Fold:
Amino acid sequence: MLVVMQAQATEDQVRAVCQKIESLGYRAHSMPGAQRTAIGITGNKGEVEAGTLEEMPGVQEVIRVSKPYKLVSRDTKPDNTVIKFPNSLVTIGGKDLAIVAGPCGIESRDQAFATAERVARTGAQFFRGGAYKPRTSPYSFQGLGEEGLKIMAEIRDRFGLLIITEAVDYESLDLVDQYADVIQIGARNMQNFSLLKRAGRARKPVLLKRGIAATLEEFLMAAEYIMSEGNYNIVLCERGVRTFADHTRNTLDLSIVPAVQRLSHLPIIVDPSHGTGKRNKVTPLSRAAIAVGADGLIVEVHHDPDRALSDGMQSLYPDQFDALMEQVRQIAAVLGRSIPASAHTHAGATVS
Ligand code: PEP
Ligand code: MN
Structure:
């Protein structure tokens, strides 16, 4: 159910409707928009009795949402969600493209700093790197854990980059929530519903990666899990799905970008690194992702990919990342979008 408020409804009227919904034993999700506020109702087992709500001051109409996802739907919130960060001009989902770059995993302080210095200079606003790595083999590098998070926090202070890193379970989610600016939920956990709910109670925005074989509806339902717990700052991420094609590691499904944008107000970015698994395909598919309308890119870059402990084959050399950014800026301009000059001009930190 969705309560649509009148355009001129006051804040008090919105609050009164939310209180009424909560007093009926449901949860109210107020979604302010440019035209009007809508209030999503969750927690109901069956139909909510619309009558009492319909009669309240400031209410325009009460409508049933027929889609299985409600809060992530454009029916609930017609305007795009733009995610903002405290003390920063960086946004995700607005006119500016979000550029996330960094190694697959944080391997050492030197490795992380060497890569961060390069990507900050070229225009990334976010630094990525796993401290907890979900690896196919238990014998592969598993990440540095909290030490990796501390290195990333130092990188934020040094370069003014915002930090994105993956949480793989409850324990790491609490730590990532403390240290990072964005909590990444990986493809393998896209349907880990208890983890999604926990992320929904976290303070930080969530980057939700598409599951390895997830449909669009399953992807949006995973985001709905997070939102239903009260965290409305979600960025979706297309990272390729498993198909019969074997010329790439995964098949990057760029058609999901306009499909998501039609159904949902949430921003969506593209990961051409995991989406292809091959360095030589990352640049062309990054260009395509921006052209198709993605809100940004998440790209693996390593200062020395040949020695990387994970995903070296798909990691760009810093020079390649520089060239990619140059191209992406031009494609963005055609679409009326832009990439802020560089992270440090935003955050006030300096890069020497
Ligand atoms: C990653 O970003 O390094 C990662 C493991 O991604 P995914 O969950 O998409 O495989
Ligand atoms: Mn990786």
